[in-house]
Amino acid sequence: MKVGIIGLGLIGGSMAIDLKRKGFASEILGVEADPVNAAAAEKIGLVDRLIDLEGCLEQADLIVLAVPVGAAVRMLPKILDRISETGADDKTVIDVCSTKEQLARCVKYHSRRDRYVATHPMAGTEYSGPWAAMPGLFDGHACIICDQEESSAKAVRVVEKMYETLNMRTIYMNSSNHDVHTAYVSHISHVTSFALALTVLDKEKDEKHIFDLASGGFSSTVRLAKSSPDMWTPILSQNRDNVLHVMDTYIEKMMAFRNAIDQDDEDKVRELIQEANKIRRIIR
């Protein structure tokens, strides 16, 4: 199988490494618009061949759209248009984006919608670009397949096999539920980390040694603030309503802590922390 990967950053590059290493792909074709990233991907050896988009759509059996979601919404209909023009009934197209509703809407009535499988591998780091790609990134993580009933059974089987090769467990849900859940488990974490980083950076202007005191706890809490703005700006924009709802709830909880601390109410602070400790049932 020839796999074409459009976007050779952390996710696309890591897929390229493991799909070739584990024998799923006979050849990896890479498409990368950024010339610096393209040169790096070629030097690192992430792909067998760098190729233009047209060539990728013509030659690849499985096409992975691994670009920021804003670009994916623009590109996906055009990719399916091209598949429709060539009459190819054996190609499969997937995306790996963190939001799904707008992608689902933009191709809902496309004649080749059945060749597209909406996916979200729940894995990553705060780093980006070809240099961030690594083997084993997906091992043991969950992958969400959305709206599988809209895709052909054959296309879904190909994608399930691909994620099985990447050692991921598959979860199925619709696009709307996906975006709600990711707002809670992923998007709010990034917003919180960005805000904390900005808070500390403001303080650091006056107190130059504040980062000398940073411990492991601070580093782990704020590490997501290093994430790419090119990726996260469209994610937060496209999932706006869900993210705002989660932010409102988060602000309410912050105010509960603030009020208890302001009132020197140690019993209330303890109660809030004990309630938060219940997260152990979910995260061990």
Description:
With 284 residues, this protein is of the alpha/beta class. The protein folds into two domains: 2-173, 3-Layer(aba) Sandwich (Rossmann fold), CATH 3.40.50.720; 178-281, 6-phosphogluconate dehydrogenase C-terminal like domain (6-phosphogluconate dehydrogenase C-terminal fold, Orthogonal Bundle). The protein is built from eleven helices and eight strands. The chain has an eight-stranded mixed beta sheet with strand order 3-2-1-4-5-6-7-8, with helices on both faces. β5 (92-95), α5 and β6 (116-121) form a beta-alpha-beta unit. The longest helix is centred in the C-terminal third of the chain and has 30 residues, at 175-204.
Q: Can you tell me the CATH superfamily of the largest domain?
A: NAD(P)-binding Rossmann-like Domain
Mean model confidence by pLDDT: 94
- Total beta-strand segments: 8
Tell me the domain tally.
2
User: Given this structure, which CATH class of the largest domain is correct?
Assistant: Alpha Beta
Widest sheet: strand ordering: 3-2-1-4-5-6-7-8
Please name the CATH topology of the largest domain: Rossmann fold
CATH architecture level-2 label of the largest domain:
3-Layer(aba) Sandwich
Helix content: 40-55%
General shape: globular
Gyration radius, to the nearest Å? 21 Å
Per DSSP, the total helix count is 11
N/C terminus separation:
38 Å
Question: Class by helix and strand content?
Answer: alpha/beta
The H-and-E topology, N to C, reads as: EHEHEHEHEHEEHEHHHHH
